[in-house]
Amino acid sequence: MIGSLTYSDYKNLYKNKQIIKENFDSSQIQPSSLDLTLSDECYEIKHSFLSPKNMVRDKLENLVLKKINLQKSHIFRINKTYIIKLNERLNLKNNILGHCNPKSSTGRLDIFCRTIVDYTDEYEKIPKNYCGEIFLEVTSRSFNIKLKSGDKLNQLRLVSKKHVFLSDKELIKLNEKNKIIFPTNNSHIKIENGLKITADLSQFQKIVAYSAKSNAPIIDFNKINFHKIKNYWKEILSDKKSIIIKKNKFYILKSKEKVRIPRNLAGEMIPYDTRIGDFRAHYAGFFDPGFGDPKGSYAVLEVKTNELPFLLEDGQTIARIKYEKLNKKSNIVYGKDIKSNYQDQGLKLSKHFK
Question: How far is 216 from 75, CA to CA, in rounded Å?
Fold first, then answer.
C-alpha cells in the first residue's frame, strides 16, 4: 500500500529488523511516526555539515572538537553545535523512504536539530531503502539544555514508495464533508498550496505570545512540568493586534484556526516559505492522525527571523499545513489514550514548564 506508514507498520519493521535497536520500547511508536533516541556517543563539532559522498563517520574525523559521553547528563550550550549518534539503525527494503523532524517539545525550546545520514545531500532525508546509522546535529539557540542518552529530540516518518499529498481541491472537498479546519476569532478558511494558518494576536491586553529570555537558567530536558515560566519567557501582550518579531529572538504564538487531522491522514507544517515572509514559523512539523479530533486544536507556532525585524499582524498567514495520505487508517491515534502532550492545546509552551 502506497503512503505514510502507521503504528502497526513500525512494529512490523522492528520485528523484521528493518528498524534495529537494542531494548526497543514500543512507546517510541506514534500513530504515524517513530520517536528516535539519543545514544551516549556525542561530539562537539566545528561546524555543520552534510555527507553526500561519504559515511558520516568519515566526515567526523576532521570536525570533532571534543567527545562527550551522554551516559551522564551534559549541558548543551547555546550556539555550540553537537552531533549525536542515535540508538536506532535502519535496514529498509521494499522501496520505503522517509524524513525526520524535531519533536514538538524540541521545537518549542528552540533546539535546532537536523538528521544526517550516510551518502545523502539533504538534511532530514532518509533515502529509499536506506541501510545505516542515523546521526542528529543539535544546536540549542535560546537556552542551555541538559540532555542525556535516551532523550527523544526528533522523530522519523516513513513512507511506502512515495508521498501522496492532498491537492487543494481534495482539501476543500474534505473540509466540506468532514471538517479539518475550524475558524475562530473572525478568521477565514484559506486553502492554497495547503491549509493556511494565521497568527492570533486578537486578544486585547491578554498574552498573545511568549519570547525567550536571554541568560535564563539551564533547562533539564528530563524534568516535566517543573521549570517556572517567568524565569525563561517574557509574556507579550497585544494592544494593536500586532507585534514586532525581533531579529534572532525566539517567539511562541498560536494559530487563529483550530485544525484537525483525520485518522486516515497525517499533516506536516511547512517550516519556511519566503512567499509568506523571511522567518521560520515551525520547527516541529509532524501532526499525527487524530490530532485535534473531533473539534480541532490550535497549532502552536515557533517563530524566528534571522534577517530583519518583522511586523506580524493579527490574521496574517504564518504557515501552511500539507495533508498526506496514510497507507491505511491508523488504529492508534493522537490523544489522551497514548498520553499525547499537546491535544486540545491553546498558547502552550513545552511540557517542561509549569
Answer: 13
> Domain containing 21 — which CATH number?
2.70.40.10
Q: Domain of 30?
A: 3-160
Note whether residue 143 is domain-resident.
yes
* Confidence at residue 279, expressed as pLDDT on a 0 to 100 scale: 57
pTM for this one?
0.93
The 8-class DSSP code of residue 122 comes to S
315-330 pLDDT tens trace: 998 889 999 999 998 8
Q: Which residues of the chain have pLDDT under 50?
A: 338
Rounded to whole angstroms, how far apart are CA atoms 39 and 75? 15
Tens digit of each residue's pLDDT (9 = 90 or more) over 75-101: 999 999 999 999 999 999 999 999 999
* Angle 160-165-170 from CA coordinates, rounded to 5°: 135
Extract the C-alpha cell encoding 41. 556517543
Q: Which residues contact 254 (CB under 8 A, 6 or more apart)?
A: 200, 298, 299, 300, 301, 345, 346, 347, 348
Cα 316 to Cα 206, 257, 275, 306, 310, distances in angstroms? 19, 12, 12, 19, 12
pLDDT of residue 336: 58
216 and 69 share one domain: no
Cell numbers found for residue 166:
492532498
Contact indicator for 257, 182 with CB cutoff of 8 Å: yes
DSSP string, 206-261: SEEEEEEPTTPPPEETT-TT-B-GGGTEEEEEBSSSEEEE-BT-EEEEEEEEEE--
CB 29 within 8 A of CB 11: yes
User: What local confidence, expressed as pLDDT, does residue 330 receive?
Assistant: 84
φ, ψ dihedrals at 100, nearest 5°: -120, 160
The DSSP code sequence of 52-118 is SSS-HHHHHTTTEEEEEETTS-EEE-TT-EEEEEEEEEEE--TTEEEEEEE-HHHHHTTEEEEEEET
Q: Which of 116, 131, 160 is the last residue of a domain?
A: 160
Alpha-carbon gap, residue 61 to 68, rounded angstroms = 15
